[in-house]
Amino acid sequence: MSERVVIITGGSRGLGADLVRSFLESGDKVATCSRSGSPFLDGLAADQSLAPRFFSSVVDICDREAVESFVGEVNQRWGAPDVLVNNAGVAREGVLGLMGSDDIDTVIDLNLKGTLHISRAAVRKMLTAGSGRIINISSVVGISGYQGLSVYSATKAGLDGMTRSLARELGPRGITVNSVAPGYLTTEMSHGLTDTQLEQIRRRTPLGRLGSPADVSSAVQFLASDAGTFITGHVLVMDGGLTA
Ligand code: NAP
Fold first, then answer.
1. Ligand 1: residue whose CA is nearest its atom 39
2. For the residues 50-60, what does the mean pLDDT come to?
3. Against a cut of 0.85, is the pTM above it?
């Protein structure tokens, strides 16, 4: 496959930035969105050689109209998306009994509702094209659970449910849908974990370390590649054996 049209949500930093890097290195056309810019995105925008095959937009994925026009813009520039990576996500830590309603809404609005809305917009284009790959970044905590992450875990388990249902719905139309469920990664999202929690995770992980964004990008690339053609409805756990 060459010059795929790839949408990656939340590409300004962390895993999303590595996914953007990885697909640009593969020669693809990459569009990303986030609520704010970043030095990483500024660097790519300043590289004139990338101008024909990269753009980023300021979009809040919780804003349905903004999501529709972002996907519309991608389609107008390059045609239907071949790959959608639903990477943007947010976590709010805290025991449920003490969690504010706004925090619950923030996590559900982005991780579940926002992901469903941008997927719907992309699916409509993919159906017309008769092909596509959707890859949802969920999390091992949606499978194993983690104290203080019940809302986040609910959304990630929900994403895996979406993956399985959408895979059944879209398989006959040539579109595959999979999840990649990482363990703990060395990104900003894990900065809230204490040293004791990080040490405990390392100790319990057979491979003895946290995952890197590049570990996850490789799995996403695999699912988006020709090698992943017959894989759909699958949740690929990438956690160094933590939940083995
Ligand atoms: P991160 O460093 O916090 O980055 C999140 C990205 O999403 C940023 O680009 C952020 O940009 C964007 N974003 C957040 N809210 C948004 C919104 N409403 N609309 C549009 N973009 C939004 O997170 P990460 O660690 O890279 O995580 C990436 C994905 O992996 C998430 O789905 C996360 O749940 C999952 N994951 C992470 C870990 C981990 O340990 N880090 C483990 C398992 C799974 P703006 O803030 O500018 O909008």
1. 185
2. 98
3. yes
